[in-house]
Design goal:
Beta-lactamase; five-stranded antiparallel sheet; two-stranded antiparallel sheet; binds glutamine; EC 3.5.1.2; Glutaminase; glutaminase activity
Length: 305
């Protein structure tokens, strides 16, 4: 495994020049375009690392998996999916047109921005601080990493420039999808997207999903088998945004990407995968990350299809 990972990273690094680091959040533009790293966490407790796996990056949309878990734990799946749909979209992750004209004008799915903002509004807590702390605590638990924290510069940058997310959120307030104070909901959303992780942290989240909701390193259950199955299914259909179909054909691993360059993969009964590479394709997915996962999937026959 180690030799294969080293070779995959070596072979895929060249792809980084084909993409661009996200710049619509100004602070993300400082990312290293050439970086590529990976961590694989197997369910029998082995961990493998290659490339720039030590680099910290902001979790961005991979947090949508975490907030969905917390919201379902707080409200039950039936209520959550009465507010947010389960359907994929051919529109970009921050599309406005996604919101109107579909089933009851609810966001299409929890893996795009509108859906995730609605999901964050459902999380229990008496204040935005308490809501955020509950999500952060869950994140620390599911990664087994007590040192996880927010990148304050990215948070400020995102909050200062997040007008499209504001537009989505105010629209959802007008249709009754979001209740309460919109700016408070957005503040929690921006903070959660700005949480800093490494490949190892997201590989561990993937390992919990791969293990049907149980943390493999201590056998503690964090979500039910059913919720784990639902989330992996939505990751297949929606996790790579409007690139999900092609990704399913080429890779076939339930995955979630973020514009910080991370991709989380969950291979049921086998492993969690965390990949990082901030150079992105037109859909906002890590360009080298896609190649790494494609090579890994082929090498170990990981496609679920
Ligand atoms: N924080 C980012 C945003 O709201 C997340 C988007 C992403 O990772 N695709 O735009």
């Amino acid at each position: 495994m180690q030799r294969i990972l080293d070779n995959i990273i070596k072979d895929t690094r060249k792809w980084t020049i084909e993409g661009q680091v996200a710049s619509y959040i100004p602070e993300l533009a400082k990312g290293d375009r050439d970086a590529v790293g990976i961590c694989v966490t197997t369910l029998d407790g082995e961990e493998f690392f290659a490339g720039d796996y030590k680099t910290k990056f902001t979790i961005q949309s991979i947090s949508k998996v975490i907030t969905l878990m917390v919201a379902i734990c707080d409200n039950g799946k039936d209520y959550v999916f009465s507010k947010v749909g389960m359907e994929p979209t051919e529109q970009p992750f921050n599309s406005i047109t996604n919101l109107e004209g579909h089933d009851r004008n609810i966001p299409l799915n929890p893996m795009i921005n509108s859906g995730a903002i609605a999901i964050v509004s459902l999380i229990n807590g008496n204040s935005p601080e308490e809501k955020f702390e509950r999500i952060l605590r869950f994140m620390k638990k599911i990664t087994g990493n007590d040192t996880i924290s927010v990148n304050e510069e990215v948070y400020k940058s995102e909050k200062a420039t997040g007008d499209r997310n504001r537009a989505l959120a105010y629209f959802m307030k007008s249709t009754g999808v979001i209740e309460g104070d919109v700016e408070e909901v957005l503040d929690v959303y921006f903070r959660v997207c700005s949480i800093e992780v490494t490949c190892r942290d997201i590989a561990r989240i993937g390992a919990v999903l791969a293990n049907a909701g149980v943390m493999p390193w201590n056998d503690e259950r964090v979500i039910s088998r059913e919720v784990s199955r639902i989330i992996k299914t939505i990751m297949v259909t929606c996790g790579m945004y409007d690139g999900s179909g092609k990704y399913a054909v080429h890779v076939g691993i339930p995955s979630k990407s973020g514009v910080g360059g991370g991709i989380l993969g969950a291979v049921t009964r086998r492993m969690g995968i965390g990949v990082f590479g901030p150079s992105l394709d037109d859909h906002g997915n890590s360009i080298a990350g896609l190649k790494v996962l494609e090579a890994l999937s082929k090498e170990f026959d990981l496609s679920i299809f």
